[in-house]
Amino acid sequence: DRRRNLWVATRGQGLWRVRSHDTGGNQVDVITSKDGLANDAIQCVYEDREGNIWVGTHAGLQRLTPHKVTPVTDLPIARGTSATPDGSMWVGTTAGLTRISATGRRQYQEPQGLPGIVVLALYVDQQGTLWVATERGLARFADERFTLIRSLSREQRVFSIATSDGGIWVRDVSSRLLRLDDSG
Fold first, then answer.
1. How much is the pTM?
2. 110 near 116, Cβ under 8 Å?
3. What is the SS3 assignment for 84?
4. Among residues 82, 144, 73, which one has the least CA distance to residue 113?
5. Going residue by residue through the chain (184 aa), what tens digit of pLDDT does each one get?
6. Distance between CA 95 and CA 56 in Å, rounded?
7. How far apart (Å, rounded) are the C-alpha atoms in residues 78 and 96?
8. Are the C-beta atoms of 53 and 61 separated by less than 8 Å?
9. DSSP 176
10. Are 78 and 92 within 8 A, CB to CB?
11. Distances from the Cα of 31 to the Cαs of 80, 86, 128, in angstroms?
12. Residue 125, by phi and psi: left (phi above 0), alpha (psi -120 to 50) or beta?
């Protein structure tokens, strides 16, 4: 993060913060439910432009400010988080996509154009476009609407997304790295 910490998400041992010291050594702080986390199974970690650390757990989303942990407990399991240039914080959950902005919250599901209900991965490219992978498809969100890029079968579920040179790179459930062009 901007304070030179490395954040490590674990599957039951909480959130680890590795602090590097100018003397060359590292210090590992373990943050768990005993310290205020809602759950010790961490799904995702993201730093926003204000320096807050957003943590998705099996019990919901939490925001760590530099001196405070703020739980957001009324969301389903958070599977991914990302921020867009307009200042919106996006949270992909097991029940859709939630946008948290200065004007409030908005939920996106299939009626709003999301290709499935379970969000598996989020990514914001250099142009500020939000890419969303669900259990049923890969879509991009631009101009306040979703565009389906590719429908996906169970064997093709996407768990990470990146863009480069006009192409979309995805890692699927079988750990294959695939390059798609913008048209799918």
1. 0.66
2. yes
3. coil
4. 144
5. 888 889 999 999 999 999 877 666 788 889 999 888 989 999 999 999 888 999 999 888 999 887 667 778 888 999 999 999 999 999 999 999 999 998 999 999 999 999 999 999 999 998 899 999 999 999 999 999 999 988 877 777 888 888 887 788 888 888 888 887 655 4
6. 14
7. 10
8. no
9. -
10. yes
11. 19, 30, 31
12. beta
- Give, as one character, the DSSP assignment of residue 41: B
Nearest to 158 by CA among 79, 69, 88: 79
CB 158 within 8 A of CB 150: no
The sheet carrying 26-31 orders its strands as 5-9, 15-20, 26-31
User: The tokens of 8 are what?
Assistant: 């490590």
Per the document, the length of the chain is 184
Task: For residues 79 and 122, give the distance between their C-alpha atoms in angstroms, rounded to a whole number.
Answer: 9
